[in-house]
Amino acid sequence: MKKWMGTAFTTVLIISALTACGGNGNNANVEQGANGNKTAAKGNSEITVYTALEDDQIQTYLESYKAAYPNVKVNIVRDSTGVITAKLLAEKDNPVADVVWGTAATSLLVLDQNNMLEGYSPKGIENIQPEFKDTQQPAHWVGIDAWETAIAVNTAELEKKGLEVPKSYADLIKPEYKGMIVMPNPASSGTGFLTVNGLQQLMGDSEAWSYLDKLDQNIAVYTESGSKPAKMAGTGEYPIGISFGYRAIQEKKGGAPVEVVFPSEGSGWDVEANALMKKDNIKPEAKEFLDWAISDEPMKKYNENYAILAMKTDSAVVPEGYTKDPISQLIKLDLNKAAETRDATLSEWTKRYEAKSEKQ
Amino acid sequence: MRIAKWNTAFTLKRRTGSWFERIAMLLMLAGLCVMILLPLFSLFSKAVTDKYGQYNGLSNFIDYFSTPALLHSLQHTVYVSLLTAILSVVLGFLFAYALTRTNVPGKMFFKTVSLLMLFAPTMMLGIGLTYLFGNQGLITTGFFEALPFHWDIDLYGPTGIVMAEVMYTFPQACLILVVSLSFADFNLYEAAKTMGAGKGRIFFTITLPNMKYGLISSFFVSFTLAFTDFGAPQVVGGSYNVLATEIYKQVIGQQNMGMGATVGIILTLPAILAFIVDRFVTRKQHAISSRAVPYRITPSRKRDGLFLTFCILASGMILLLIGTVFAASVIKIWPYNLSFSLKHYDFSKVAGGSLQPFWTSLRMSAWTALIGTAATFVGAYLIEKTKSFPVLRQAGYFLSILPLALPGIVLGLSYIFFFNKASNPMHGIYGTIWILVMANIAHFYSVSFVTATSALKKLDKEIETASDSLGVPRYKTLLRVTIPLCLPAVLEMAMYLFINSMVTVSAVMFLYAADLKLASVSIVNMEDAGDVAPAAAMSTLIVITNIGVRLLYEAVTHQIKKKTQAWQTRQQ
Amino acid sequence: MPQSYLSIEGIRKTFGSFTALEPIHIEIPKNEFVCLLGPSGCGKTTLLRMIAGLESPDGGRLLVEGKDITSLPPAKRNIGFMFQSYALFPNLTVAQNVAYGLKEKKLSRQQVQSKVEEVLSMVDLLSYATKYPAQLSGGQQQRVALSRAIALSPDFLLLDEPLSALDAKVREKLRLEIRRLHEQLGMTTIMVTHDQEEALTMADTVVVMNNAKVIQSGAPEDIYERPNSRFVADFIGAVNFLEGMNGGEALAIRPEHVRLGLGQETGSYEAVIESLEFRGSFYRVTMQVQGPLSQYFQSGIMADLNRAVVKQYQLEKNRRVFIQLPEEHLIRFGPNRRERLEVVG
């Protein structure tokens, strides 16, 4: 019997060992071996970072951080914009997060209105364009990039049905697209919110709601995630997906028969921004993380995914997948107003369209 | 008189069971309380507090029943579960009947196929259905326009959920019904025939009444499983909300813990009902007479032909579904580029993050199997074989069976409430792999407990007393005699715990830490983000692992049977 | 009476509302072979398990040579216990089973082995040492259990229905074997059985129990010839009851003591043969007594007659005969025992 128990125990240990090794190479959260690096003397510490950045981007972004701060363990909590916002608000009295990274500025403004953010101007804040950072001194939030509404359209499926590729918001409410459009739920998705908010600021409140009512007629389903509509358009599950630029371009690059359409009226947008959480014990590592998050290395990486950087750049190159300077595609927008009306907008939206939302 | 009574109590105390046993018993009870009872209390107390942690009585429940959207989710869930249970029992009955009462060829094959679904997370069933019946599905598009017909069943919504749940609950219903169909007394059939009863009359007067408890039990099992499942509605539910996804939304999406707990309690009601019915049914189900004659299958080509067709269709559907998921995981871009590619197995570019969740799941499942088997077996041993604290043993038995009534999602929620309090001395395990292991052990405790108990019941009752009379400490006899004799059951428990830990999502989805994402959870995340093909790939990995573990189990069991043949055969 | 070795002083036990043992008093001399005899549920097994220390009494004391062992665990009582089911460990070989308790003692490997060989050869099973229990016949398993029980050279050998699971032939052989081992090793042996024949043939002393009480104890002949109660008379061997003869006194007579003749004599009763049952070495003849005396023989009367007598008298059904009940063989329970009779009857 002892033999049996021994064997079973050894098996588990081996599995544990193997699986632990299997993970080492590709997990941001597992520390790398220290080799006399500059922060090694500080010993081991950890910070908790909440983020709404895309899963597939986080690992690449963090590479340069890990190289610079090998001894800091970063606990990433990743979820959609709506969930991260709700989670932060729910933890208001007892915040878990040290840092919020790459989360919609409209959400950070809500947190700030709740007095949950600590002012901190990270090193290099002067390089950030004024419209992409907080106006207060020290800044309560600092942007890293902006993202915007884009429509992924599956040309193969539309061809089969003999339909034109829609070019504008106005096109999307044409009756021939009935049941073909997927859009993210603004309550959970940042992309969904910036799209609805963009429409509101573009058309005015009542006009926007009557437009959304008509759009609702054509919507097959509202998704939880802002990426999913683009991916669904990619597989043709639903041919038209209201999503954001990066994701739609990724689908096209991956080989799906997708055309990326930026609506001719202009795109709603939001800033992916960072902030320091107000709590009793603010760790120096948290500030270091914020410094790093707007430094050159990660900015280069953000740029691989987002055309519009918060940083002032001289380059006039039109990024891959775009037909013109992406900034000109953005509509005029007041982020503060968006944050103020966020709650009202979401409850109005929920009241009107919840029934068609995925899982609701 | 009083003195005599006191004296009795005293002598009992003095002489029943060793110190070692009594301490073990208390530890086990403490463990069960921490694992099951206390978290449940936290859940109940959470259900009567508001968003900000203030006591608000039943207002969450009042809110729930006065919010139409929330109430809809209850109606939806009941509707879907009822339909699932009916279909599952009917199909399971036909399949079980084919396996036990007909001469259909290839029974082994059909039986194996029917069990395949137990190795898959329920999200996989949804994913499979998406690839078959979704807008770009194999069947919807007539094999990508290769066939002249199209068939759109309008998958997303109740249709998809019911299809997935039926496939999920079918093997479970089938297992129960096979057992209850196997217990038949052929004497009754012959007696009925000699009295001139026709086939229909025999079926309704003998076959059905004989298995009524099996039918009730399989109905409730199917109903409860469908009622509490999260994975399938998450994938194919579309805009059709059910309770399990509602909890997820309340807790994760809106961080409304109070309402989450409220819905959790509502979710538990049918499971508790099923639990009571099952207890009742088990008690009623009397042992079959020792003079019963096993059922003899009469030859009938027509009957066999019909049942063979049914078995082929049912197995075909299961294999088609699994095969499609496997295929979709290695197809470059479904449906536009059908060339072979392993790119979906590189999870670094999708919401899964990496292959890490798979390794974490493996590690967690291995620990669950090891610790869970040991804990459950010792628990069952203490309750079955010792004499200490008869009242506490009863309590222990109840706590051991209770998890049968607890949906995973409810257990997971209770764990957040209980362990995520900074004041809890066990707060430290929150966010580690151990809370996942613990939740899984609690979730799957009852079934392995019952397995262990029935194995122990089969042993000679005097093994322990024989050991006492020979002056050998009981723990030595446990190690040297009892456990070796129960080894097949022990292995079965380990396999059961491992496989279920690999596929479960409901109990762990609230509990995993960011760096401990699990394979099953990553399937949900990937599917959520629209990365369906990688989700299919991850499902494939889980199924293959589980089939591997099952084969390993079969091989080891076979070896053990061979080695221990000398002491297995009983001579009269 | 020889000096008491084991004293059972007022041992009692209840399970909930069920009384398993009323306070029991028994004195057992050293080296005796004692049988606890009684119908199932009479408390005999409970008593045996208490002597072994496997159950704890609610009250009373157990003394061995005057020392109180009531609260000693089984391991410290130096007993060998043989279970009704044998409780052999199925996954251990015969030799491992026998060595199981020995390994707890501080013995060398050699000593253990030679002890195992010794006891196995005592029961003639040495050649089966490496077999598993399931590979042996019932009788062989019984002998393994027996040798396991005696391997520790116990002061007491306690046997719980050791022969009940065996068929008649094997049982008879093993009776002798157990008795032989008892004499050879000189232990005090206590055996529980419900089979009166087993008790009478094997025991030095028989303790008859019923309804949680000891009814009678004594040498087998005493118990058989002079049962103190209707219950004992009926439980041990066949018996005819004579109701209300001699002014209400209950009398009984064993069938083998009933005499039979063809002609009327003084003190004989007229009877008609109702059935003749061939029992191998004798016939059991059942008769109905005729006339007014029949009221004393309400359930008829049995007589065991040898074949020669049956042949000689040409006995057959409906044949008229005369029976005699020899005074010296009449069993009297006496008026002082009426109370017990009522309890039992």
TrEMBL record, chain A:
Residues 1-22 form the signal peptide. Keywords: Signal. Coiled coil: none annotated. It comes from the Bacteria. SUPFAM superfamilies: Periplasmic binding protein-like II. This is 2-aminoethylphosphonate ABC transporter substrate-binding protein. It comes from Paenibacillus glycanilyticus.
TrEMBL record, chain B:
The chain crosses the membrane at residues 23-44, 78-100, 112-133, 170-192, 213-236, 256-277, 306-331, 364-383, 395-417, 429-452, 485-512, 532-553. Keywords: Membrane, Transmembrane, Transmembrane helix, Transport. PROSITE patterns: ABC_TM1. Its main location: membrane. It is a multi-pass membrane protein. Residues 74-278, 358-553 form the ABC transmembrane type-1 domain. It is found in: Cell membrane; Membrane. Belongs to the binding-protein-dependent transport system permease family. This is Phosphonate ABC transporter permease. It comes from Paenibacillus glycanilyticus.
UniProtKB/TrEMBL annotation, chain C:
It comes from the Bacteria. GO terms for molecular function: ATP binding. Keywords: ATP-binding, Cell inner membrane, Cell membrane, Membrane, Nucleotide-binding, Translocase, Transport. InterPro entries: AAA+_ATPase (IPR003593), ABC_SmlMolc_Importer (IPR050093), ABC_transporter-like_ATP-bd (IPR003439), ABC_transporter-like_CS (IPR017871), Mo/tungstate-bd_C_term_dom (IPR008995), P-loop_NTPase (IPR027417), Transp-assoc_OB_typ2 (IPR013611). Coiled coil: none annotated. Residues 6-236 form the ABC transporter domain. Gene3D superfamilies: P-loop containing nucleotide triphosphate hydrolases. It holds the Pfam family ABC_tran. PANTHER family: PUTRESCINE TRANSPORT ATP-BINDING PROTEIN POTG, SPERMIDINE/PUTRESCINE IMPORT ATP-BINDING PROTEIN POTA. This is 2-aminoethylphosphonate ABC transporter ATP-binding protein. It comes from Paenibacillus glycanilyticus.
